Amino acid sequence: MEIKKTGLILSGGGARAAYQVGVLKAIHKILPKGHYNPFDIISGTSAGAINGVALASYAENYRIGIKHLERIWMHFSCDQIYRTDFAGMSYSLMRLVRSMMIGKRFKNDPVSLLDNTPLRALLNEAIKFDQIQGAIDNGALHAIAVNCSGMESGESVSFFQGHYSITNWQRQRRVGKRTRISLDHLMASSAIPMVFPAVKLQNEYFADGAVRQLAPLSPAIHLGAEKIMVIGVSGIAHKSKIVKPNSSYPSPAKVMGHMLNAAFLDSMEADVERMSRINRTLDRIPEAVRKKEQMELKSIQLLEINPSRSIDELAGEHAHEVPRALKMALGGSGNTGQSGSGILSYLLFSHGFCKSLIDLGYSDAMARADEIREFFSDHFNE
Question: What residues does the PNPLA domain cover (predicted)?
Fold first, then answer.
């Protein structure tokens, strides 16, 4: 049986990305013991990029990589990601207001609600970037991509490190650039606009990769993926929500949560739907006809795993874990309960919430063990 290059797509979503760790842990449990890294190509965005690069750095020992990822997320606290003390939070708010009110005088101030310097220190210690090239050279990994959004160009840029045969690409507002993945790339990819500061890479400032990412699946395909697993963080995807009557005006946290959902979730769901539609269309066209007409499109095997319950609701259940200073920044406790659980699901890097997400991801993947085994059947023969 021909072995196809397998791509892994890890979408963004702040604290929601803990769900991906649970799914990856289950995949390790489901597949045969002693197996190597099952993902040839990894493409990550925002917090998904952090998970992806961490996994890529342990591509030569997938088991240890998963344990390392789980250990990091299980011991998370909000103050490891951003400053949660009143002094730090107040300074960030003052700097944000100052930049908006007196822009020219303070034009070099980072425009952000939160100061995420603790995250930089954590990632610098936790991720061994120098191990990535070794994994590529030894064939344990084909490529890793970190997706960012250019603030000046408006382009979705996939910074990739991979096999020498991979070349840069240029599409409409989508660019692929070969580089050596660094801490700055991760900080840029996870820089949620107005929440965390943008990062300068070469001559341009970059922010969260989910912004203006029109085709989240395309980087993995450009890097050579012939089948793709997508671990989403949307929660009960493709299902309509029951709208409850609400006479009050949406809180600031509710509005921010809505905007983050639009940036992080909508494009992924739309691209998965588009890919599924293309696959169904191609399946109806005989291969001989495709070759005769020189059709460039090819069918990509796709497996999508999403949370089986609403992550917003899960975040609401852990609202009591929100740091007091963050409540202040979001306008009081009224914005950090159920009404503001959308924004909480992105910023609540607490032990309880992250553990619940990991457990949910693990149980969701284990419930689909047969599908996962079938997806990897060309890699592993029991």
Answer: 8-221
Distances from the Cα of 70 to the Cαs of 38, 307, 354, in angstroms?
A: 18, 18, 10
**What range defines the domain where residue 298 resides?**
6-79+118-235+254-377
pLDDT digits (tens, 9 = 90+) for 66-89: 999 999 898 877 888 877 666 665
> CATH number of the domain that 323 lies in?
3.40.1090
Assess if residue 244 is contained within a domain: no
Residue 341 predicted with pLDDT over 60: no
Cα–Cα distance for residue pair 132/196, rounded to 1 Å: 26
Q: What is the pLDDT of residues 348-373, one digit of tens each?
A: 888 899 999 999 999 999 999 999 99
Work out the number of other CB atoms within 10 angstroms of the CB of residue 327. 19
91 in any annotated domain: no
Q: How far apart (Å, rounded) are the C-alpha atoms in residues 373 and 30?
A: 7
Q: Are 234 and 48 in contact (CB under 8 A)?
A: no
For the chain, the domain total comes to 1
Does the pLDDT value for residue 317 go beyond 70? yes
283 and 302 Cβ atoms separated by less than 8 Å? no
**Distance between CA 249 and CA 252 in Å, rounded?**
9
What's the predicted TM-score (pTM) here? 0.86
